Amino acid sequence: MSTHIDEPRTDDPAPAPTGGVDKAQYGLAALLVVVGLYTVYDATTLRIGFGDPVGPRAFPYVVGTVLAVLGVLLALATARGSVGELEGGEDVDLAQGSDWVTVAKLVGVIAFTIATVDLLGWAITGAVLFAGGAWALGSRTLVRDVIVGLVLAVGSWYAFYVGLGIPLTPGLLDGVL
């Protein structure tokens, strides 16, 4: 009982569609170019302080330029016939419907964070955001999630405040942090 090597397998994904223009890739390329050019334009309107040699324009110039260049490269790759690969490694059952309960939990956690960040401060709401997101996605280790969330939130608070000079709201922990 021998099988021929060139026989198609039945469990292989369907081949990529041939011919035609992938309008979605061109649309994404155009969006990248427009957002990139607008970012560069918007950076030109920023005011520069006399004490900062780099100024606030450097980062938007870099990001905008990279976005525009990536958009052009995507359009060129699409014109040359490059298409995205089919999903092969995902273990997602596309026949299943969306899990709207999980989406609602995540929206609730994010809404809570937005509503309370000024009152409670970033350190507390950041920890709640992390622990609540982990809970919504199925974690059952609440104590560990809260501890990790606190470490990440306080660490990011100090990174912004000390490292970047950007004060995040301390909220209830004003004077403690």
TrEMBL record:
Q: Is Transport one of the keywords UniProt gives this record?
A: no
Q: Which Pfam families match?
A: TctB
- Domain DUF1468 as annotated: residue spans: 29-168
Transmembrane segments annotated in the record for this chain:
26-46, 58-79, 106-134, 146-168
Keywords for this entry?
Membrane, Transmembrane, Transmembrane helix
> Coiled-coil stretches, from where to where?
none
Q: Which InterPro entries match?
A: DUF1468
**What name has this protein been given in UniProt?**
DUF1468 domain-containing protein
From which source organism is this entry?
Answer: Nocardioides aquaticus
Q: What is the lineage of its organism?
A: Bacteria, Bacillati, Actinomycetota, Actinomycetes, Propionibacteriales
